[in-house]
Amino acid sequence: MNTKKNKKKVLIRISYVGDSDSGKDQLREKCFKGESQQDRTNELGVDFSLIDYEFKNILIKFQIWALSVSEKHQIIREKYYAKTAAVILIFDVTKPDTFYNLPNWLEEIWKTAGKLPMVIIGNNKKLREKKKEKKCISFKLANLYAKRISEKIGFEVPYFETSTENCENIDDVLNFLAEILCEKHNLT
Description:
Blueprint: E1 8-17, H1 24-31, E2 35-37, H2 41-44, E3 46-55, E4 58-67, H3 74-82, E5 86-92, H4 96-100, H5 102-113, E6 118-123, H6 125-131, H7 139-153, E7 159-161, H8 170-184
Parallel strand pairs: 1-4, 1-5, 5-6, 6-7
Antiparallel strand pairs: 2-3, 3-4
């Protein structure tokens, strides 16, 4: 029997990026639960959460880096991108500007770190369902965008939707990242 003592332990750093009005901070606080380190965000432009996650025979500690969107922190973001294993891109499905700015985030990441494994998350799914407005970003459009990114970089970039109300699909996000990164680094 494989106990926790006998399991491999690995730290995986994830950059968590998107516009400030994407709801990413609220989503991280509610859905990416774990030990949070927020005391120096304004000074350093980053805070992070530590999430323990078990995948197959591996104990993963995800270090989720929430990076500041402030222009003054761009150099700091770039230093963190260079040390990251994967990216979580966030936008708000009820705020189209946050979706249409994703290419700018991708360009910044690719310029510094190259093409990394990533997922795209559409936040506030429940709010879109309540609003029923045409101005919202549809699942179909966002999923198509993720497929185009997948084709461009040569590996799967899945699209997930969630809401801070229920944190739907967050475990699927972590499972995907665990699987692809463990496979990439021959950990399984």
